[in-house]
Amino acid sequence: MSKKRIEWIDVAKAVGIVAVVFGHAMTRHGTMFHFLYWWHMPIFFIMGGFFLKPIVNNDWMGFFKKRILPLLISYLICGSFLILLS
């Protein structure tokens, strides 16, 4: 039995990996560093939480609205506030 891969998750993981490499390789000053540092590790926590409990049905939009969107909105508001403070 073969399992289908979800392509956008693979892409999100790849973007996260590249961001971590750049985040650790860059100097700790400048706008680009702060932009990368703001989200490069949380993407792994989000992806880990995404796979914590298997989704039994294919209601991706319901899952996104119920679980991902509230966390994403909170994260963006708090992150924007922290960027404005720095």
From TrEMBL:
Keywords, comma-separated and alphabetical: Acyltransferase, Membrane, Transferase, Transmembrane, Transmembrane helix
Lineage: Bacteria, Bacillati, Bacillota, Bacilli, Lactobacillales
Keyword flag Cytoplasm: no
Annotated transmembrane regions: 37-56, 68-85
Species in which this protein is naturally found: Lentilactobacillus parabuchneri
Position of the signal peptide: none
Keyword Nuclease: no
GO molecular function: acyltransferase activity, transferring groups other than amino-acyl groups
All copies of domain Acyltransferase, residue ranges: 6-85
Pfam families: Acyl_transf_3
Domain of life from the UniProt record: Bacteria
Annotated protein name in UniProt: Acyltransferase family protein
